[in-house]
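Database export, one record per block. Field names are fixed; values are copied verbatim from the stored entry.
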Amino acid sequence: MNLKGIVPRTWRRLKRVLLVLFIAHFVYIIILKWVNPPITITMISNWVSLWGTDKHFHKTWAGYDEISQHAKLAVIASEDQLFPDHDGFDFKSIEKAMKHNQDSKKIRGASTISQQVAKNVFLWQGRSWVRKGLEVYFTFMIEKIWGKQRILEVYLNVAQTGDGIFGVEAAAQAYYNKNAASLNREESAMIAACLPNPVKYTVNPPARITAYRQRKILVQMRNISGDPDIATLVTGRE
């Protein structure tokens, strides 16, 4: 067996495969600027986990103008108050989280809304360096190609908002028997309050921690509502 010939051929084939994957992902990112992602790995995993239980999978897409401005403001207040201003990464929060995680068993995250969209749409859950590296790439790409409004729209539709529930439209229907456009401030803040752990931080019935987070989010919503960049984004005038 001629190893000297096999190694270069294998490397050339690997480079072709990587190039094809890169181009395919790049095209997919461009397509998703206008076409809604059909399903994500997280959704599939959650759907499978519901097999054999009495719970059902709920996912309903709502366009940007079909979502309450309160809901948009609530998730920004809860998850990423610098969302309109950064380029996908909040480096100060990342630095603080790294320092905190060095001295604490309780891991603190610092992912922006853009990073969460990159992870939820293109990748899988986990904390490996490979996934984190890919997350950086996809975050950079959607920031450059999609823009803030599209990123926020996708986030509001793919974020898990309960056990088997994805997106604010499905949450509005499941918890309040209304559509996402009709959500008021309190309802929007309650849904946003569940986002860090939508299975533990239940909305209906509301867990104590969810109600506590809701009150904090309502205060933050009032504090950031006067920011012109946030106001422009939530009203859809980007």
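Remark 1: Residues 99 and 108 are 10 Å apart (CA to CA).
Remark 2: The chain has two domains: 1-31, 39-234.
End of record.
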